[in-house]
Amino acid sequence: MALLELTDVVVRYGKIEALRGISVSVEEGEIVTLIGANGAGKTTTLKTISGLRPVTRGTVTFDGENIVGIPAHRLVQMGICQAPEGRGIFPGMTVAENLDMGAYGRRGAPAASEFERVYNLFPRLAERRKQSGGTLSGGEQQMLSIGRALMARPKVLLLDEPSMGLAPQLVAQIFSIISEINAQGITILLVEQNAAQALKRADRAYVLETGAVVKAAAAADLLNDESVRNAYLGGNIEE
Questions:
Q1: Dist. CA 231–CA 205, nearest whole Å
Q2: pLDDT tens per residue across span 112-133
Q3: Are 191 and 45 in contact (CB under 8 A)?
Q4: Does 110 score more than 90 pLDDT?
Q5: What kind and span of H or E run contains 95?
Q6: What pLDDT, on a 0 to 100 scale, did the predictor assign at position 107?
């Protein structure tokens, strides 16, 4: 049984069907990526899993339980945590305070070891732990967004465009850290415009077009799929 599974999920924005009966599964321990053009439904899929968009039809199952209709804050407590597109940090709070907010829904204060785990993954955050989030660079804010999500002890981590707006050397660093997080036992569902990097890191992948899944395969197979290369990789995989 998959850790996370969407079955025939339909989501509407008014009269517009943003998701048109998609089915996606994520096994425990995997990195699964969703790729597709802007407006394909990738972010809507993550928001639906997180309880931020109502499901019109279909089921979303997590750890064997249908979670449709469960409030977003409860889903975080159950182990579904998201680092959103645009980072969404608290700019007036320090790095340490932002991380502390990631553990807000849990009982008791987070242990020092949990902060250290994040600081070990992101040494730059350790150096800036007393600095306001709004003064960080874009790459540092992305690290903080992911670190804050990790503070909630996720079973599955949803990452929405973690490389957006970053310099190439930072993109490589972020993806390396994503692999390291996964190696620590955290399942990851990744939405990413940099399809080449995403497919190189993922176990499996889904291609979304206008709210529907049009391809689903092992990531390595899609990386070598001519139609995927032409549509999302500029005809090559040297990215």
A1: 15
A2: 788 999 999 999 999 999 999 9
A3: yes
A4: no
A5: helix 95-102
A6: 63
The answer as to whether 211 is a domain residue is: yes
Indicate whether 44 belongs to any domain.
Answer: yes
Q: How far is CA 13 from CA 19, 44, 58, 122, 177, in A?
A: 9, 10, 16, 37, 34
The pTM of this model reads 0.92
Please tell me the distance from the alpha carbon of residue 208 to that of residue 210, in angstroms, as a whole number: 7
The number of CA neighbours under 13 Å toward the Cβ of 42 is 27
Q: Are 172 and 194 in contact (CB under 8 A)?
A: no
**Quick check: 9 and 18 in contact, CB under 8 A?**
no
Per residue in 11-50, pLDDT (tens digit) is 999 999 999 999 999 999 999 999 999 999 999 999 999 9
Angle at 105 between CA 102 and CA 111, to 5 degrees: 60
Q: Specify the DSSP class assigned to residue 148.
A: H
3-state SS assignment for residue 69? coil
Give the CATH number for residue 64.
3.40.50.300
State the pLDDT at residue 236: 45
**Residue 47: both structure tokens together:** 């928001």
Number of domains within the chain: 1
On whether residue 221 sits in a domain, the answer given is yes
Q: Would you mind telling me the total number of residues written for the chain in this entry?
A: 239
Dist. CA 144–CA 147, nearest whole Å: 5
Closest CA to 183 of 32, 29, 27, 80: 29
What does the pLDDT read at residue 19?
98
